[in-house]
C-alpha cells in the first residue's frame, strides 16, 4: 500500500508543479493549439493555447512509478512495465500527430495510414509479450479468455494456441484503438477528458488493490483472482490518477494547456492496458461509459449522414452538440463529469457485487 501512496503523490506533485514549467517552454517555442473553423465559435479564443501537455502526464507517471519502486525497494513487474510501454508508445504516436499539426498549422496531423501503423505496432508488441511471457509458473500477464469481471468461458484459443494468439492480438488492438480514440474524441472541452480519466484511473486503482488482496497467489481460494501482478497494476493506476489529477489543475476551464493527442492516446492506451491485464476487459465499457457514448456519437453521426445525408446531432462529438444547443462549456464539462462518475460507480458496484454474491 505504501508504494501506491508514493506513486500517486509523486506523480501528482510532478504534474502539478511541472506543468507550468512545461507551459512556459511551449509558449517560448510557439507550440499552440490549432482550432477548427467549423467548430463552436467560442473555441476560437483558445487558438494558440499550448498543447502536447500529455507529455507531462507521461513523464509524471513514469517518475511516480520509478520512485514508488525505488523507495520501497520493490522490483518492477512485467505487467506494470507493459502498461507503461503501451502508454509511452501511443503517447509518442500522439506527439508526432500534435507536432505535425502545430508545425503545419492545420487540423490534420499524421495521416490515417502512418498513425494506424504506429498504433498497431505498439499494440501488437504489447499483446504478444503479454500473452507469451510467463512468470515461470505458466501465468502470463494476459489471457486468451475474454473477460468481464474475471475470465469468461469464451476462449479465443478454441482452435489452438496460434489461433488464440492471433485472435487475442486483434481483440487487444480493437480495445486499445477504441479506448484511445474514445479519450481522444472526449478531449474537446477544457478538462473534460482529463477529469473523466481521473475517475476511470481511480476505479482501476481500487480494482487492482482488491485483486491483490484477493489474489490466488500464494494460496488459491474459491473467489480469488487469477491476475498476475495486481498490486503493481494498482501502482500504475495510482501514477496515472495522480499525474492526470495534477494536470487537471491547469487543464480545467479556462485551460492554460491542452493534453493533445499526446495525452489522449497515452491515457486511452494505459486504461486499455489496465483492463486487459486485470482481466476486466468488458468492464471497461461500464467504467469508461462516457468515452463510449462520445465515441458512439461520432459513429452514429457519420453513419447516419452517409445513409441519409442528414445529421442526428448538431455536431459530433456529443459535447459540441450541447454547446451548439446553448449550454455553457463549463456546464457541459461538469455534467459529463457527473455521468463519468456514475458510470465508474456503477462499474465498481458490479465488480464488487459479483464477489459478494459469490461468497454467500
Gyration radius, in Å: 20 Å
Largest pleated sheet: 2 strands, antiparallel
Return the domain count: 1
Q: Number of helix segments? A: 12
Overall shape: it is globular
> What's the helical proportion of residues?
55-70%
Ranges where pLDDT stays below 50 over 5 or more residues in a row are none
Strand line-up across the major sheet: 1-2
Distance between the termini: 28 Å
Number of strands: 2
Q: What is the helix/strand order?
A: HHHHEEHHHHHHHH
- Which band does the percent of strand residues land in? under 5%
Q: How confident overall, as mean pLDDT? A: 91
Explain the overall architecture:
- This protein has 360 residues and is mainly α.
- The chain has one domain (2-286).
- The protein contains 12 helices and 2 strands.
- The chain has helices spanning 2-29, 54-71, 78-104, 112-132, 161-186, 192-213, 230-251, 260-277, 283-287, 289-308, 318-324, 329-359, and strands at residues 145-147, 151-155.
- The protein has a two-stranded antiparallel sheet.
- A hairpin with a 3-residue loop joins strand 1 (145-147) and strand 2.
- Helix 2 packs across helix 8 (260-277), helix 6 (192-213) packs antiparallel against helix 7 and helix 6 runs parallel beside helix 12 (329-359).
- The longest helix is centred in the last third of the chain and has 31 residues, at 329-359.
- It starts with a helix and ends with a helix.
- The mean pLDDT is 91.
